[in-house]
Amino acid sequence: MSTTVPRVLVLGGNGNVAKLMTRLMLAKGWHVISVIRAPSQSASLSISLGSTNSGHLDFRTVDFLSTTSSSAKDLLQDVRPDIIVWAAASMSQPRQIDGAAAKAYTAAGASLPTVKKILSISAYSARRKAAPWWSKADAEYWKHEVTSYPDIANAKTDADEHLIAWGNKRAREGDATFQAIAVRPVWYGSGGNGSEGKVVVGKTPARGTVRREDVASIAVALLERSDARGYFDVAGGGTLAVEKAVQKAVEENVDAIEGEDVERISALVS
């Protein structure tokens, strides 16, 4: 990261991973603008975050269901972030939230040269084909999940693909510094609080769990780098601590988009 204080727009700021990320970013002295659904959430969110050390926290209120290209652009022009984090999600209305709204903010952000990074919190299952490194049991598990929750899987897959397509467009237009990052956890574990500490980043099995604290730490570690791009599937139960796992995945150019039709994805945004 540069010496300039990062200015981060967190969309879906009241979500569990978003709150954990916000705490980590504030502790680093970053300026976070947390986008929430209702003004009443700001007080409870401020209390839950506790001491912010040298960071600065602001709030904006947005109804993602009413998101348009124009409203997304207006918010970005108001906030002027250099980093965007998409962490909003909906079990009941994934097409509107995980799909349409996510794509609108991705397009608005990637169209602004002042936005240098866009990171989404997605899911490992957001893909069209079974990953080539999975076992047969992994592939069957993934297929069962995406057929059980087809609207969620389709919305997240579509949004992730558009994020990568916008990143490729920026690269084609000569911006080699822009970073499009999709953090794609397996199912969140329900046992215990705090970080497990040992994770897998890059290519993971489909089966398994990961703690939200570790997902947040991985996401912030990726944002701290200038060379992280692509799909990063994440899971618990690894052998490396977060920083080492992130470093290994990035430096070895691991990208969990492998097995997908990258040419088709790139053509989504011309």
Proportion of helical residues: 40-55%
Beta strands, count: 11
- Spatial gap, N to C terminus: 29 Å
The largest beta-sheet arranges its strands as 3-2-1-4-5-6-10-8-11
The number of helices is: 9
Low-confidence stretches: none
Q: Strand portion, in percent?
A: 15-25%
Structural class: alpha/beta
Q: Rg to the nearest angstrom?
A: 17 Å
* CATH fold field value: Rossmann fold
According to CATH, the homologous superfamily is NAD(P)-binding Rossmann-like Domain
Task: Characterize the main sheet.
Answer: 9 strands, mixed
How many domains, in number, for the residues? 1
Tertiary shape? globular
Give structural notes.
Helices cover 41% and strands 19% of the residues. The chain is of the alpha/beta class and 270 residues long. It has a single domain, classed as 3-Layer(aba) Sandwich (Rossmann fold), CATH 3.40.50. The mean pLDDT is 94.
Give me a quick take on this structure:
By secondary structure, the chain is α/β, with parallel strands linked by helices. It has a single domain, classed as 3-Layer(aba) Sandwich (Rossmann fold), CATH 3.40.50. It contains 9 helices and 11 strands.
